[in-house]
Amino acid sequence: MSIEDLFDESACGCCEVAASPTPEVIHNRPGLTTIRYRIGTFSSFRQAMIEAIARKPKLRDEWTARTSDDYGIAVLEMWAYLADILTFYQERIANEAFLRTALLRESVLRLAALLDYEPFPGVAATAHLAFTLEKDKQVQIPVGLRVQSVPGQDERPQKFEMAEAIAADVRLNQIRIFPEPEPHNPLEQGLDQGTLAPNDAEAIAAELAEGDNLVIRLTGNTGVEEKNVEKLEVLDSRRVLTWAPAILSAGGGDRMFKWVRKFRLFGHNAPDRYLEPATSNGLVVFSPQPVIFTRTASDELFLDSIYENLKEGTKVLVVSTNTSSGIFVHHASIEEVGQSSQRVGRGGQVPLMAATVTRLKLDSALPSNIDIRQVVVYELAEPEIAFWGFEYADDISGNVIVAKAEDLSEEGVEADQTIILADGDGEPEPMTVQIVEPETYGGLDHLKISLTPPLTRDLKTRTAVFYGNVAKATHGETVAGEVLGDGDASASFQFFWVRKSPVTFVPQPGAPHGAASTLQVRIDGVLWHEVDTLFGHEKDERIYTTSVNDEDTMTVRFGNGTNGSRLPTGRNNVVATYRQGLGRDGNVPANTLTTLLDRPVGLKSVTNPFEARGGAEPESLDEARINAPNTVRTFGRIVSLRDFEDAAREFAGVAKARAVLEWDGLEQVVRLTVGGDKGAAIIGETKKNLLEDLNSRRDANRKLAVETYQELFVQVRAVIYVDPDFIDEDVRAAVHAALLDYFSFDNLEFGQPVHLSDIYQALQDVRGVVALDIDLLQFKNPSVRTSHGATDRPVQPRLRIFSTELARIERPVDDAIVSIGTRRS
């Protein structure tokens, strides 16, 4: 460097202006939800222009003002304002150009359309309705019959329409069901009731009344037990006899009778000995002699008195509790009834006992060596009490039920018919009939009905019923013959708006997202058909496309004569029929669809035994951002585990999905866990349609199991310390809401563990919280702690959640407790 350079001000660079603040260097890492795209703001643009003055020597020397009161600086500031506005909107436009960062629905829809994806428009709820008919009626229930819900507080009534026609029969209103009968002896030890034999039940019941005397012959003729009729009731057309006390004998009994009278034999009450007089040496000497109580084999019985109204043919039960051969029980019929003089004692002129008594001649002889003191004779009533010999178990399990054939003939239930099973203890279940066949058990006719799918729980036989007049209905009310407008053959891509919204989309396997529009458009009375796009179609095809805007208003657009036919010119010739109603509003509770808006003759009432299901809102923008890339990732095929998740989430009504590989002992199984809108269970018709959709796009050789997620309940207790400038209760309520929000269905994923640090972060972010202590984070059910790797300590650093589970708070008041601690200094 020369001496001259040392004194050259420009050589050192100290007078040079720094790099311009605009344009700013822009860098965005991948995966952001918003991007930076502004090259400057008002301040940076203003600073850049002022610094530019210094770079121009002439301006620098002549323009020395730098404050806003200078007209020149004011002009620069106005330009900086303009640049600030332009770059702001440029950044907004740039964000709208990417699917992940776009905020406007129109932008998301356009970007998704580039990937050949259209967000699903929502789907209507489906309900299974059970109809009740008036006596001796059969009614044809048509498609479109309207039923309205009874709204709860702050709710609006929802209309449903029949999606299928059925021929309803009064016999199918409600029928008791049972498990398949099993052989059963009601006279076993410990039992106190039995079902009367069906063929003799009427005759037996006519002879029984509460308090009547019963006698049970024990198995093996080992004795009898006496009982009393406690009650005789009709249960499901069966007559059930209850007695008391219950049977005590370990061997039980084999026959039961009603007895009218109970007799003893003559001499049963004689003394064991008597004095027999004799003369010896002129003196009368009395010597004690034993009384002979045993008798030889005979078919005669001498009762201890004279008894009236004993008739020939009457059945008797002769019971001896002490014989040389053991206890004896003899069942016989009376052949003759008479009277006979009997006495006790041998020899002498005056017998020990003497009387005229009733003599019975039986149709079979009694054995010898019977002690008359131990004999009891029961006069039996006719007919003998006979039992069915079968009984129903307490629970119905599996997919086989048994219905009374006298209530329903074989022709009354058809294969593929939908019925509903219920028992009053749990949620009813819709089932499909597979096979109907008659069966007879112990003379009692039944119908054995095989059903699919298998029951998810056991039904209680005591209250189990099935509803047979069942049909599907979907949410929404028909708007018929709405005039959209006039056709104009000179107009290209003519479009119209449907007046009422939202248009109903109903579940339909194979349709995009598993939901199909109910819109039908007719031009001059001729039906035109909806397509995904007009492009590529012939000029004379009667087609149209539809789109739904942010206000749920549907637009119908027709062709231009090149891609699809133009509309023919006409007055009010564009007519639409559709249904209105959609979303989770249709998921009405059980037994609320009870108002018949249409009532054919003979139709008495209607209800939905379980809640309506499957109603889902239109796909949100966040969901569309996630699902739209699936079209280019899967190309409609399901191969990987992620493909299963993506395909499931595309299906209307499925909000979350998680797929894992599991080993079932024989092969690997894809286990797909799904959850519906706002955590609704994916079951019934929605699950069936989802499976059908997945099966159409996957390798059928791979085993697939689709299950609804399981809620795994946890408990949390936190003590918060509130900023003195805030109201304690307001902060407490906000912390409680934040805690519940953390455990909400939308926030957590299937299998996502719960970390103590995450709870601290979620609660510490609440305004007004100075500090907090969490003194409880644990599984609510102690039985799951070991299986999930938790200890019994109240505060767990991490709660492990399996892939089929979702951590939830069961009872917000009891399981998510927030209290306020003593203020910290």
Overall radius of gyration: 45 Å
Number of β-strand runs: 50
- Quick one: biggest sheet? 10 strands, antiparallel
Average pLDDT: 88
Question: What sort of overall outline do the alpha carbons produce when their principal axes are compared?
Answer: elongated
Query: How many separate structural domains?
Result: 6
- The secondary structure category is alpha+beta
Descriptive report:
With 825 residues, the protein is α+β, with helices and mostly antiparallel strands. The chain folds into 6 domains: 3-97, no CATH class; 174-180 and 392-468, Elongation Factor Tu (Ef-tu), domain 3 (Beta Barrel), CATH 2.40.30; 184-391, no CATH class; 477-580, Sandwich (Immunoglobulin-like); 629-708, GMP Synthetase, Chain A, domain 3; 710-820, no CATH class. The protein is 16% helix and 36% strand. The chain has a 10-stranded antiparallel sheet. It has a 7-stranded mixed sheet with strand order 31-39-35-36-37-38-32, with no helix packed on it. The chain has a 6-stranded antiparallel sheet with strand order 40-3-4-30-1-41, with no helix packed on it. The chain is elongated, with a radius of gyration of 45 Å. The two termini are 66 Å apart.
Fill in the keyword field for this structure:
825 residues; alpha+beta; Elongation Factor Tu (Ef-tu), domain 3; 6 domains; ten-stranded antiparallel β-sheet; 14 helices; disordered N terminus
Please write out the topology:
Layout: H1 3-6, H2 9-12, H3 42-55, H4 57-62, H5 71-96, H6 105-114, E1 126-133, E2 138-141, E3 146-149, E4 159-162, E5 166-169, E6 175-178, E7 182-183, E8 193-195, H7 201-206, E9 213-218, E10 224-235, E11 238-244, E12 253-264, E13 273-280, E14 283-290, E15 294-295, E16 298-302, E17 315-320, E18 328-344, E19 353-366, E20 370-371, E21 375-380, E22 390-391, E23 395-396, E24 400-404, E25 418-422, E26 429-441, E27 444-452, E28 459-460, E29 465-467, E30 470-475, E31 477-485, E32 495-497, E33 505-507, E34 515-517, E35 520-523, E36 526-530, E37 543-548, E38 554-558, E39 574-580, E40 593-596, E41 603-607, H8 621-627, H9 630-634, H10 641-650, E42 654-663, E43 668-676, H11 684-695, E44 703-708, E45 710-722, H12 728-742, E46 754-755, H13 756-764, E47 769-779, E48 798-799, E49 805-808, H14 812-815, E50 816-820
